[in-house]
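User: structure tokens for this one?
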Amino acid sequence: MLVKLENPSLLSRPVEIISELVTEVKIKINDFGLGISAIDPANVSMVGLRIPRSAFSQFETGNETLGINLENLKQILKRAGAGSSVVLEKKDNILNIQIHDRIKRNFTLSLIEIESEDVDFHEKESRMEFSSRIEMNSNDLIASVEDCAVVADACSFVLRNGRFVIEAKALNSAMSEFSGDEARIEGEDSKAKYSLEYLGKFMKGAKLCDKTVLKFAEDHPLKIEFKNQGMELDFILAPRVEEMED
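Assistant:
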């Protein structure tokens, strides 16, 4: 197996985000490209990364599954700067990582056995229902989530009468409201509450793209889609369902 990325940030930036949720993953490399699917230890969120084959300048592989410690991979990929390219080559139980810029640097990363069952992000997602879809400016979403984090530990996503609201209520409150002028709003009225601890981690993915897509339903999981020309990073977040609601 040997694959080469001329734009290492397509891998390094998602790996940095995913490493805040899980410590070990199975990276799958096949005819499609490179993929990661994982569920966090608390079973609250799920992540799916896809980098298509077309994003690689060199792609020589069959079906490979690489057991990786994400913290170790993250630290190596950080060594690739702007203008670098990265080559990943599997040899026996070692992943050889070359960084090509003015000079060629070489790292080796020991592959590990991961006992957890295989997770297929898109298979699990296909069994979920999303009645509402919001496409909005990523910076607006980041700001709204950060506003809510000032006053509470959870926020509600609300679609009512063609308007989308992100709000948090505790002793204090925060709210951002969007009309069809500021966001593309589709679907039926719904409301669900989500953890701001997790949303705050996901928002680092929003910095990878201009637009973010949110999909949710009444008291159902949230799907967040971050997509740019070379990769797709998706998250699923379980709702916070409480017996007593305001």
